[in-house]
Amino acid sequence: MDKKSNFFLRRIHSLLAIIPIGIFLLFHLSLNTTVFFGGRETYEAVINFMKNMPLVLVLELVIIFLPITVHALYGLWIVYVAKNNALNYKYGNNWAFYLQRITALITIVFLVFHVYLQRFSVHEAEAVIDSLTSILHNPAFFILYAIGLLAAVYHFANGLFTFLITWGVTIGDHSQKICRYISLGLFVVLGVWGVGILTVIAGF
Amino acid sequence: MSKQKIIVVGGGLAGLMATMRIAEKGMSVDLISLVPVKRSHSVCAQGGINAALDTKGENDTTWEHFDDTIYGGDFLANQPPVKRMCEAAPGIIYTMDRMGVMFTRTAEGLLDLRNFGGQKNKRTAFAGATTGAQLEYCCDEQVRKHEAAGLVTKYEGWEFLSAVIDGEGVCRGCIAQNLTTMEIRIFKGDAVILATGGGGMIYAKSTTSTICTGTAAGSIFQQGARLANMEFIQIHPTAMLGDDKTRLMSESARGEGGRVWTYKDGKPWYFLEEMYPAYGNLVPRDIASRAIHKVCVDMGLGIDGKNQVYLDLSHLPTDFLNRRLGGIMEIYEKFHGDDPRKVAMKIFPGIHYFMGGIHVDEDHQTCIPGLFAAGECDYMYHGANRLGANSLLSALYSGTVCGPAALKYAKGLSKTAEDADEKAFTDELKKQEAFYEKLKKLNGTENPYVLHQELGEKMRANVGIVRNNKDLTANDQFIREIKERWEKINMVDGHGFSNQTIFFARDLKNMIEVAHAITVGALRRDESRGSHYKPDFPDRIDEKFLKTSKSRWTPDGPEIEWEEVDISLIKPRKRVYNVAKEVSASGK
Amino acid sequence: MANDDKFINIKVKRQDGPDAAPYWEEFNVPYKPNMNVVSVLMEVRKNPVNVQGKAVNPVVWECNCLEEVCGACTMLINGVPRQSCAALIDKIYEQTGFGKQIVLAPLTKFPVVRDLTINRERMFANLIRVKAWVPVDGSWAIARGPRFADREQRWAYIISRCMTCGCCQEACPNVSNKSKFIGPSHIAQVRLFNTHPIGEMHKEERLDALMYEGGIQECGNAQNCRKVCPKEIPLTNHIAFMNKETNKYAFRRWRYR
Fold first, then answer.
1. How far apart are alpha carbons B365 and B363 in whole angstroms?
2. Do A91 and C224 touch (CB under 8 A)?
3. Buried-state track C124-156, b at ≥16 Cβ within 10 A, e below 16
4. Any residues with CB less than 8 A from the CB of B369 and at least 6 apart, and which?
5. What is the CB-side half-sphere exposure of residue A158 using CA atoms within 13 A?
6. Which domain, by its residues, includes C148?
7. CA separation, residue B50 to residues B388, C27, C153 (Å)
8. Chain C interface, mutation test: which of A5, A13, A88, most C Cβ atoms within 10 Å?
């Protein structure tokens, strides 16, 4: 193996996080936003539309499954290698770093369940929504689901901050600080948005 | 002939420069250093390095640099080597610049220069107030390049114990001990260069690092090398007193406009400016130290009744100070607590630099063939008082002389170290091993660290700024006693691994020997010259003492011999700083 | 000031050798104003007796310049990596309260030699790896060095104050026994040498070195390095800049391959 493979893997890992995974996350959340407007029927229609898209399996495989798997597997290595020390060095960015790794693990577990429950165990749009609402009706499961979603959203928002550094976009203190705020804001917005969606679905 | 090798002891500027010069010519070097070379004491130098670059429209010349240096050194330095050093200085600075030293720049990207003591022209190139560190790092990097190429082998964490001198009286290598594993081993080399720095620790509290014990010089002193002009100890006028050490506040503070004052009759008294109108705050260090001592000790005018006066920078713009003196601003703020940008710093003279050192010829070779010395541990360039910012220059320059000289010597040998009599090596090794065993078994009552404190206190009191023969005689007696007390040391650390106390005790023994040479040198020199000041003999007496004092070790104490000084280029004249110095016309 | 009855209490993590088991030992040292951790340890060795009154071996630690420029005396003081010479007792007490125990331990990211001394050879070896030097033809005088803009010197000078003390490595969560990360300081060093007009001529070699295993990619942006750097080098900015440089270099190389 080339001695630089590590560098390229890490950069691919970083790139995949935004393209396509991050974009897909935003797309996914946007689609689900329809629950706010049309109620259950519209949501069903949207799900059906998605399921009947041409080459849906290929798209799922290439845009979603493979990138996430690669990102997750290499990410697990990164998590394993780090020696976290947030309790000793209680700086904001160090906590963000630690949380990035914790949310990575939570997100992986969440995704496994999420994909299994909503993608593989049920197929009809109606059944998908039924299974979801039945889970979310249970307050304990709702909280677990919300934690999973918030973890994913945090991982994305904070990842965007580090992505900009990793690609040398934000170099100075000022730009990094601005992006830190933007990333925090994004986390709050996406978090509220996501939990809002869950709440609406739970009410179906 | 088998493969040749040169040993360099010491990873400061002189040692690294010598290493570089030898490795460049393809010869292998074993570089022995107490600490990782990057942590050598050269990093403590702050203010800058002198060279007559003449970029400030002052018609500066290397001759004037030479004249300032000789005049500043009260004519005690042999003149031809000093002249060559001043002539080489611009080339050295340009080389360091090429090698990446982050010198402070002018607006057009050239090296900036500033004022320094004892010189009227702007002649001091600098990198903020951490010039020594910047130069040291640069040389460290260059040597690392040679290390990567396999030419230099570093032995970091080894202490030089003694030179190996064979039956012909030629130095064939050295014995060194590993600070961690305690292994003692032979290092064979066709020449050995000592670049082991000064011995500030002999005074316990000084501006030097804890490794500056002078132990290597003390060791070869006992092996037959001579020490020269040891009585000349530079006391830096502006240091901050601390519990563990006196920390240097660079002369560049005054070079950039800092003013020294205290209160007299309730009003600020800028005594240096008043006493020495021509040079003001930029008088040489010996003059400034004596003035501060006089004001505090004799006149009792120290701030808060203590031995301290103000060094004031607070009238200068903050940005200017951060940019040009940032390093010392931080040190003062960190170690004292006050912000020197806002309030005046409290300072007092502190032991700083050894003008004297191992006696060498113009090739930096000692009287033992094959044994060389360069840097602060030699005695060559500063006479009776060193000008500020000349030490970095002499360290680098002596490396550029000593390295090639040692190389030439090694190449000219008819018999290499590898072919030398094996017995010389094993005998010396056995001697050092036996001494190590003795050190381990010391179980008297004296704590070596406490003994060292006592030595330092006595040296500061008796062989400091103001000296008199009564105190010096008492000090001589004290040193004879402490030599005996050393035998009663208690080896407080009984561990056979990474035992620092063993090293400290050995160093202390050598420190005492060097202290003795300092004391006897000062006792014998009945005059006042440069940093050596005896109120009972207030004048310089050229007829009798325009001579290098050469100290030879004997078991009963050092014997002093006097050697003529080469004054072939500039005729000695009276050294005064209250009026502007006339540049000597010779050579112009 | 009468401080005769006041003591500085330190607790030291000791270890007799690289493979020995660590243990804790406490010492009391009479309080004096303006002491620092080094001077406390110096007092200990003048009278190496622990709080139980037992004579023990003096604590072994490294120090040299005592003015925070050599980097030798770096250790963990109350859990924070810093130079023990610059750790003033009175300042520590201002934060923790007078007389509160001060805990000293060796850095954890480097092999312990004995007590508080550690082996930092790795850092110097990595300086070779990133070719941290300006490759001049030789040390002889040729001519005036290249002109270098004042504005560049201002920030490059800050990097060149790095004393390879290891604080940034100690605080970095990505430096661990499971990773070969060269650490933040060395990435900044590459920027320093890639900025010097002569060093810049060989920048590709250093960029290349930064991309090997344990290179710049190991940075996870925890940004502790910058907080603990005693020389206040903005390491995170330099890492970000070198990210850009290595990415650009990698892409360029791929295009021209």
1. 5
2. yes
3. bebbebbbbbbbbeebebeebbeebeeeebebb
4. B169, B170, B171, B409
5. 23
6. 121-256
7. 8, 47, 20
8. A88
Distance linking the first and last C-alpha atoms of chain B: 48
- SS3 at position A64: helix
Give the CATH number of the domain where residue A159 resides: 1.20.1300.10
Query: Inter-chain contact C147–B110, Cβ cutoff 8 Å?
Result: yes
Q: Say yes or no: C136 and C55 in one domain.
A: no
Interface test with A, best of C174, C177, C221 (most A CBs within 10 A): C221
Q: For residues A81 and C176, is the Cβ–Cβ distance under 8 A? A: yes
Tell me how far the alpha carbon of residue B485 is from its chain's centroid.
28
> From CA C27, how far away is CA C46, in angstroms rounded?
12
Residue B59 · residue B443 · CB < 8 Å:
no
Query: For residue A136, what are the CA distances in angstroms to A128, A143, A151, B167, C16?
Result: 12, 8, 17, 95, 59
- Dump pLDDT digits (tens) for B318-375: 999 999 999 999 999 999 989 999 999 999 999 999 999 999 999 999 999 999 999 9
Last residue within a domain, chosen from C93, C118, C143: C118
**Closest partner CB to B180 (pick from C68, C91, C113):** C113
Q: How many CB atoms lie within 10 A of CB B53?
A: 22
Q: Looking at the domain assignment, is residue B527 inside a domain?
A: yes
Inter-chain residue contact C179 with A94, CB threshold 8 Å: no
In a shared domain, residues B435 and B510: yes
Query: Which of A130-144, B124-138, B152-166, B477-491 has the least mean pLDDT?
Result: A130-144
CA proximity to B527, closest of B542, B510, B514, B515: B542
- B208 shares a domain with B295: no
In a shared domain, residues C128 and C28 = no
Question: CA B116 to CA C38: how far, in whole Å?
Answer: 32
The residue of chain A with its CA nearest to that of C174 is A82
User: In Å, how far from its chain's centre is CA A99?
Assistant: 14
Partner residue opposite A78 with nearest CB, options C175, C220, C243: C220
Between vectors from CA B242 to CA B239 and to CA B244, what angle results, nearest 5°? 120
Bridge partners (DSSP) listed for residue B31: B8, B154
Assign B34 to helix, strand or coil. Answer: coil
B341 is catalytic: no
Give pLDDT tens digits for A159-171: 999 999 999 999 9
Handedness of CA A182, A183, A186, A187 (dihedral sign): negative
Count of domains in chain C? 2
Contact check, Cβ <8 Å, B39/C70: yes
CATH code for position C251: 1.10.1060.10
Q: What pLDDT, on the 0 to 100 scale, is given for residue B532?
A: 98
Chains C and B contact (Cβ–Cβ under 8 Å for 3 or more pairs): yes
Q: How far apart are CA B20 and CA C6, in angstroms?
A: 52
Residue C58's closest CA among C100, C20, C29, C34?
C29
For B502-523, what is the mean pLDDT? 98
C27 touches chain B (CB under 8 A): no
* Angstrom distance (rounded) from CA A129 to CA A137: 12
Contact residues, chain C, for A81 at CB < 8 Å? 174, 176, 178-179, 218
Neighbours of chain C (3+ CB pairs under 8 A): A, B
Exactly one of B114, B172, B285, B290 is catalytic; which is it?
B285
Establish whether chain B is in contact with chain A, requiring a minimum of 3 CB pairs below 8 angstroms.
no
Whether residue B544 is contained in a domain is answered as: yes
**Do B247 and C60 make contact, defined as CB atoms within 8 angstroms?**
no
Nearest to A3 among C174, C213, C246 (CB): C213
- Is B588 domain-assigned? no
| Residues belonging to chain B | 588
Tell me whether residues C216 and A168 touch, CB distance under 8 A.
no
Which chain C residue lies closest to A2 (C-alpha atoms)? C212
